[in-house]
Amino acid sequence: MMTHRLALLGSAACLLMATDLAAAPLSDAQQAWLDAAITAYEPRMTEVAQTIWANPELGYLETGTVALLSGELEANGFTVETGIAGLPTGFVASKGTGDGPVIAILAEMDALPGFSQDAVPYQQAVEGITAGHACGHHLFGAGSVAAAIAVAQWLEDEGIPGQVRLYGTPAEEGGSGKVYMAREGVFDDVDVALHWHPASSNSASQGWSLSNVSAKIRFYGQSAHAALAPEQGRSALDGLEATTHMVNMLREHVPQDTRIHYVISNGGSAPNVVPDFAELYLYVRHQDPRIVGEVFDRVEQAAMGGAMGTGTRVEIERMSGVYSVLPNDVLGQVMDSNLRAQPAISWTEDETAFATELAETLRAPGDFASVGTVDAYEFGDVGFYSTDVGDVSWIVPTVGLGTATYVQGTPAHSWQAVAAGGMSIGHKGTALAARTLAATAIELFQSPEVLEAAKAEFDAARGDAFSYEALIGDRLPPLDYRAPAAQ
């Protein structure tokens, strides 16, 4: 994959010259129309986001979210197909004609377990709720829907040939929903895919992510009284702990920038009972999916050794596997220019007070003034995170952005992200994302030369020999991966 990256960096410069000449940025009238369209829908967008935030649903369980988002799209003339790629909560909504470009906008939906948090600047759980939108996917979904509705209306008003699609993609947090959709070919006829993500700054920089494989490693032993008859037991937890010990020794002997992390999702129920079942939930990450595969093979060998040494039995189930994001510089520069053309975010005194109090809980608070600025555009850096957007990006040219929906310095997957995402700070960042996505799509619909340049860069980056094969193989979607471990 590193060779692909070098080819991409070498080819982008010559492609951009053509892009600068071919781009058709929005006119003043088009920008004014777009701003009015998003402003008019913004109260409903906020209501949709808040409804999802108040009713967080885990991966592959987003039934209420799907009903809400797809209902919004149907009410605005979209044709909605549900149950995509065998995913009960996957859907595709389409509007437009079939004789022009197809532009997809991605919408993630799932929450994270263990992040119950009210919309207050201090840690406070919400009674009766155990999950939370610590990665802002409630904003992601609502903002993407707002953009899709605006673009569809523009296509209809202007009589422009083409189709806009909103892809409802479930279970990004470890369930790899987009991978199953990609494996089934639902992106194959798309010309460009757009996405965004909640963040603590505004940026359209394009870079690589990390490929990953995750797995649940289950050990089976023999229960016995831990004091009266320990010799009759075979501890599944011993098998698990032997494995984690070997995995931790492995860290010294893997390629640089490899990440391995895990939790013990089931370690037994009582100290005086030899556990007959234990479960390890583990991730391996690296930019290069080949290295991920090699390191995970060694983890599997460690698990088999742990089972052999403790007289237990082991089963290994791959839960997910995603490619690294393949960045596109041509599309990135178009996205960046459209982000800079939108009205800047401005906080009220109340929002600044909220941010000031919340910032006291952060290890590295940022500069609040940056909420109204856009970061310098950069291309080709590596981000140490994983996303199933990666698989989409190796099938169709893909571009994304982040907007300031969190207080500056807030890390994703934190209670502080949940708190800001449940109030107006999050909503303002979402409106900026919706405007930018819509503006980028409108520009691309009227810029065929840009689409061609983006595709040329994409083809050069992948290489002639590339053929997409999902890292999850032919397994069925793990629709119960958020369910408690079963013995």
TrEMBL record:
Residue span, Peptidase M20 dimerisation domain: 213-301
GO BP annotations, alphabetical order: folic acid catabolic process
Pfam families attached to this UniProt entry: M20_dimer, Peptidase_M20
UniProt signal peptide: 1-23
Annotated coiled-coil segments of the chain: none
Keywords noted in UniProt: Hydrolase, Plasmid, Signal
One of the record's GO molecular function terms: para-aminobenzoyl-glutamate hydrolase activity
A GO CC term attached to the entry: cytoplasm
NCBIfam families the UniProt entry points to: amidohydrolases
Name of the protein: Amidohydrolase
Organism placement in taxonomy: Bacteria, Pseudomonadati, Pseudomonadota, Alphaproteobacteria, Rhodobacterales
